[in-house]
Amino acid sequence: MRIAVLGAVQAWHDNGRPIHLGGPRHREVLGRLVAAQGRMVTTDTLVDDLWADPPAGAVGALRTFVAALRRAIEPDRPPRTPARVLVTQGTGYLLRLPREAVDVHRFRDALAAARRSPDKAAGLGETLALWDGPAYADLPDSPWVRQQRLQLEELRLQSVELRAEALLTSGESTGLVAELGGHVAEHPWREPAWGLLARALHRDGRQAEALDTLRRARTMLVEQLGLDPSPQMQRLETDILNRSPDLEPPGEQAPSSPNAKRTRLGPRTTVEVARTLALAGGDALVVSRRDRLAAIAAAERTGDVTLTARVISAYDVPAIWSRADDPAQSRAVVAAAERTLLQVGPDGPADLRARLLATIANESRSADATGTALENAHTAARAAEALARDLKDPALLAFALNGVFLQSFTRPGLAAQRDAIGAEILTLSSHQALPAFEILGHLVRLQAASAFGDLTTATEHAEAAETLATTHESPLVPVLTAWFRARVTAARSAEPGGPTAAMAAAAYRAADNDLAAAGMPGLHRGLLPLALLGLRLLHHRPAPTDPTLDWGPYLPWAAPLILLAQDQAEEARDALSAAPEPPGDHMQEALWSLTAHAAAILNQPETATRAATALRTAQTEHAGAASGMLTLGPVEHYLTEAEACTRQRHS
């Protein structure tokens, strides 16, 4: 039998006789199994996909649909013999058919083959002829149908463009101007289509129209999306102006124009400016976040998946902190990236998928995401890294590794792992002239060295980051390194002959003043009180009780010690009991150490046991120092306190 879903859902016997599939639900069951590409679909999934609110008899109805489809598909199958096409497997069903028997599978396979071997792309016209309207055209607009339509329509458009590219390269471009003109008119947001149309016009000897086409594309992208044309489009305009031989088929190279001027399309636009503003900090950083969301919303309204993916992932600004400055904005970006990734689909361009995955990993900060969202972010980080390595794209790999770094706080004691990530980012960025990521690499390694108490190495990375920041105008870097230098002063204030605790507190406060104006509330809020608490613990003094201090997200773990400093032991026990498990972020070792310290003072062995279990993997590190901004002293000290409290319970 044959099945078609690139249009209405239809089927035919091998002799060409149409198969009557039954009503809409029957066709939807068949279509859903086609979409699974030979994999089993569970009964529960089929029920959920067929009904938004499944009725009590949904499973029975599904079995009725399956039985009717089997009778239609295999009318001559003897009773009580196993089905050969619509097969029961485990807890669900699957279609057992050769891929060439299903139009959508033939289409996917032909596109995959054309991507692997560009010489096959010119033959995609026959495969594109399989389309007879939107995919699954006669099925209801349920979520799985919408997802399939979006994915397949994107693949269809890519096929049109891949075929046109192949025809232009081979010189068989007759009729392409009209074909691509209609394609651009129907899908005006597809930047590759504009470039192909310009090349086809140039091939027809219509250079002025080709240049006008590129300028219209630039105007639309800049004015309506704030997005600068891609480097490929910019090179294309230069090549057309120069009558570059590269635009001609082999053997037909035209002489280049000696008087042509080499130009670059377009001014700096919204996405590029947003990236620059983010690196500037302060109010500019806040503006950049707002502009980014606006650009994403505008891109999504165009309905162009490729363009939307490009806009979402264009904001490849390095990130050093595991807590978002605007969690709601980050969640909105992640949601847009996930929607777009779903539309791009597993067969979509690897570079787009890698950038969307890296965006998800970078925006799902470990201190803000929980449960499934955090698991998805970890998976996205590793998937983006794998794709970037396969593509051998250093800039993309640096961006992906930033996401891996931000997802590397799954438990205490992973400073060595982060140091390795920072070292690779440094190697990539220094060889490929990626200064923003080179700064990131130094800051990551600064944090790792700080975690191990290696202040000499950490200082070297701080100085290197500051030098790069001066050259490349990154004013946020000295704000961060000022905190590191205050952390050094605090550590040395506990040594004989070192600076005083008052000097360390003053250094923290001075660094905090600069950070307050940097536009990074996710980093700033609660940092100064936690640093001052760490300083007091280094000097064996009680927690600060100043009511004007804003402890921000760290209050649940500081509260027991604050209450103890106010002689409220019972309230301190209640606060310790109520404190949740610290989130997996830069401060997790610090917060577990506060928990261990309070548990030891209050003689709470169960809490002490939990804290000791968490801290053992970080025994060689310094509490809070993974931030590179403060320290509570060696983790080993707090681990020893917790273990002593635990032993008392068993003695």
Write a concise synopsis of the structure shown.
With 651 residues, the protein is an all-alpha fold.
Folded structure, characterized:
The chain has 651 residues and is mostly helical. Helices cover 63% and strands 2% of the residues. The protein has 29 helices and 5 strands. The longest helix is centred in the N-terminal third of the chain and has 28 residues, at 143-170. The protein is flat and about 90 Å long. Residues 253-270 have low confidence and may be disordered.
* Parts with pLDDT < 50 across at least 5 consecutive residues: 253-270
Structural class: mainly alpha
- Intertermini distance: 76 Å
Overall shape: it is flat
Rounded radius of gyration (Å): 30 Å
Strand content: under 5%
- State the share of residues found in helices, binned by percent: 55-70%
Question: Can you give keywords for this protein?
Answer:
mainly alpha, Arc Repressor Mutant, subunit A, Serine Threonine Protein Phosphatase 5, Tetratricopeptide repeat, 29 helices, 5 strands
Present the secondary structure layout.
Layout: E1 2-4, E2 10-12, H1 24-35, E3 41-42, H2 43-50, H3 58-73, E4 86-89, E5 92-95, H4 103-116, H5 124-128, H6 143-170, H7 176-186, H8 191-203, H9 207-225, H10 231-241, H11 270-280, H12 282-302, H13 305-313, H14 327-344, H15 350-363, H16 371-391, H17 394-406, H18 415-432, H19 435-451, H20 455-472, H21 476-493, H22 501-516, H23 521-524, H24 527-538, H25 555-565, H26 569-578, H27 588-602, H28 605-615, H29 635-650
